[in-house]
Amino acid sequence: MQLGLPRLIKPLDCYFFLLLHVGTNDIAKNNLEQIIADSVVLARRIKEFGVQVVSRSSSLLKEKAQAGTIKSWKLPPVVDYSFCKFRDGFRSRNGLVHVKNPHLDSMDENVLYHLNLGSKTHNLPVMFGEFVCVGGSPNRMKAFAQLMHKELGCERDGKDLKDICAGTDWYSVYKVGPVLSISHGMGISSISIMLHELIKLLHHAKCCDVTIIRIGTSGGLGIDPGTVVITDIAVDSFFKAWFEQVILDNIVVRSTELDKDLVEELLNCNKEIHDFPTLIGYTMCTYDFYEGRLDGALCSFSNEKKLAYLRRAYDAGVRNIEMESTVFAAICGLCGLKAAVVCVALFNQLELDQIKAPHEVLVEYQRRSQHLISLFIKKRLGLYNQMELLDNAFFLNN
Amino acid sequence: MQLGLPRLIKPLDCYFFLLLHVGTNDIAKNNLEQIIADSVVLARRIKEFGVQVVSRSSSLLKEKAQAGTIKSWKLPPVVDYSFCKFRDGFRSRNGLVHVKNPHLDSMDENVLYHLNLGSKTHNLPVMFGEFVCVGGSPNRMKAFAQLMHKELGCERDGKDLKDICAGTDWYSVYKVGPVLSISHGMGISSISIMLHELIKLLHHAKCCDVTIIRIGTSGGLGIDPGTVVITDIAVDSFFKAWFEQVILDNIVVRSTELDKDLVEELLNCNKEIHDFPTLIGYTMCTYDFYEGRLDGALCSFSNEKKLAYLRRAYDAGVRNIEMESTVFAAICGLCGLKAAVVCVALFNQLELDQIKAPHEVLVEYQRRSQHLISLFIKKRLGLYNQMELLDNAFFLNN
């Protein structure tokens, strides 16, 4: 198997499909230690290629390992090794956004159904830019587009900004100069569909060196409401830094690492804003809003049990909880987009479940992450100091 | 453990938490057959109580069973037995919608954040009715509300129908007589949030004998585009009739059975409409739209592999694919709502991936399931024949 890998995997392949050498026969005749030992040797070899690994076998190992050890969350090495440097493995050399789908080239037209756009019906290359900011709510992303319109000193009133994707119910898309502001709805499924179509769109639009930032809201964990959390790593409900993607009837484990340099750059931007707290932490991504809370229609656990779980999450490094970060990090990472997640905490889930802050307070909280990202974009565009100079000049002349 | 069950589980409990007797020690010292044998005896006992079963242990058994047998999807009996009759176990005797959350009673106010409603700020009992129809798109659910407005012979023009939940970006809610028409966005997370808040709302509104129907769109499997599929059972990507709900760091298996009588009633309604095909079939619920298709930004499998998988799905009884049915069936079942899923197939995924039918054709397809449900509601309300008589009388007098 190991000797065969180079024949299976060509250096220029930009996607892979690989079955781990942990088949039903091995399970039957080997013990856990032997299986893991074999897998580690294989995984080391695989790691050199930077491959996604189909995880049903390793999830079996995970279960066996959980069953076989007191530290029930300590995973066997094979699972750790199955995490390859996706971006090293996949990022395009020329900065173009690459899709990892050989079938697209053979398609006569590419219809972006949920965005109401098409590669034939729209001139995509002239439509799109270098920064993409996404968030759940259409109104919030329109407000962000209007903020960027003002901050970038665009002409006319930002109020008349048009939704590029009007005509579909699913997503709103606004463009202000090099900035796209897109809503993605709630949850992993909704943002996943948007990302697939967005990435195809950026690919057709021949966009280069795209930076994509999710500007969201979240529940805080042991932090003050209104704190902005820049996500270090997105983790699942078991505090693991992966996203388990079902593909047909396989489960593929995808890395949820985000761009470390971008995280630092965003934190540095915040140092020039002194009016709200910002920190770097893990972000936990859940599949729903209510099942881990006391105020849903269904609840079968006590407040103590919930708090014990949330404290375990806090101890694991989690500082906020939302519903999109893992799949966002996974898909963007695979397609070579530099991605960041910046979410404001609306409340502290270690203290209460229900969001009780007045509407205007919540709106002010949501402006914080938008303000941070607008500063980041202006600095990237070299407009930040210029604006200051203009403001000073205006001040001096009046 | 078996002898202790009656002390653990009281007949009047409406939610349960139970650890299966398949612990780490057993895994270490017993073989698969012994573990399953023990579990089956225990599961038979559990089944008498009608309990949700925490499935990490059984998912371990599932993995072991998959590893230990050639028929890799044949699950050991324990997993089958873990399916209890939720509705028998949980349905309220008086037809009221019951929440299964003891914490709600102790809450001073219940804020339905995503619906922009509250138990203190709104008079919920006078607001809501007996039929709830949900679907992904706000515009589609407004169109359905307007159709019901016309079909129920309401006064005034249906065009001025107000969105009860205007002021939130997330969902639209329209009320026409006893019918609520609600949008739920795309995917399991989005509909799950709406259902939790809807069920709390129906509970506060003291609604009785509520029937809830998801009117959706879907990809067909071996059926003509435009065919309406009434879901028999909702299944996951592995063709299993369950929904795996993560609660804190546990995975709970929930039944996705739907109301058989309601399915029959809906099929009978269709017999009075002869202008489009309708059938009963399994509906497969996926976590995303693109990862199982050839036209996403990421694809690592061939068309042949995809078709082989879809043919296996077809052979398992699946006739259409969408993204909400399993969690919809699970939550509604647990809360005693009679639920159905009625989705029109926009295309046949065994033939093509991309949705290429003209907009007006897709709109006509979507009207089909709405038309069927409006007939169902009119018959339930005893209005169907009355309307006919009125129409005839009108015809005779003119």
Q: What would you say this structure looks like, in words?
A:
2 copies of one chain form a homodimer. In chain A, a hairpin with a 2-residue loop joins strand 5 and strand 6 (179-183). The model of chain A is unreliable at 10-18, 50-61, 68-93 and 392-398 (pLDDT under 50). Chain A has 2 domains: 5-84, no CATH class; 104-397, 3-Layer(aba) Sandwich (Rossmann fold). A 5-stranded mixed beta barrel of chain A has the order 7-12-11-8-13, surrounded by 4 helices. Chain A has a 3-stranded antiparallel β-sheet with strand order 1-10-9. Chain A has a two-stranded antiparallel ribbon with strand order 2-3. The first copy, chain A, has helices at residues 5-8, 24-29, 32-47, 56-68, 77-81, 86-90, 124-127, 138-151, 188-204, 260-270, 303-315, 325-334, 359-380, 384-397; strands at 53-54, 111-112, 117-118, 131-135, 173-176, 179-183, 211-220, 228-235, 242-247, 250-255, 278-285, 318-322, 338-348. Chain A is globular. Chain A is built from 14 helices and 13 strands. The longest helix of chain A has 22 residues, at 359-380. Chains A and B meet through helix 2, helix 4, helix 8, helix 9 and strand 9 of A and helix 2, helix 4, helix 8, helix 9 and strand 9 of B.
How is the topology of this model organized?
2 copies of one chain form a homodimer.
Chain A lengths: L4 H4 L15 H6 L2 H16 L5 E2 L1 H13 L8 H5 L4 H5 L20 E2 L4 E2 L5 H4 L3 E5 L2 H14 L21 E4 L2 E5 L4 H17 L6 E10 L7 E8 L6 E6 L2 E6 L4 H11 L7 E8 L17 H13 L2 E5 L2 H10 L3 E11 L10 H22 L3 H14 L1
Parallel strand pairs in A: 4-6, 4-7, 7-13, 8-11, 11-12
Antiparallel strand pairs in A: 1-10, 2-3, 5-6, 7-12, 8-13, 9-10
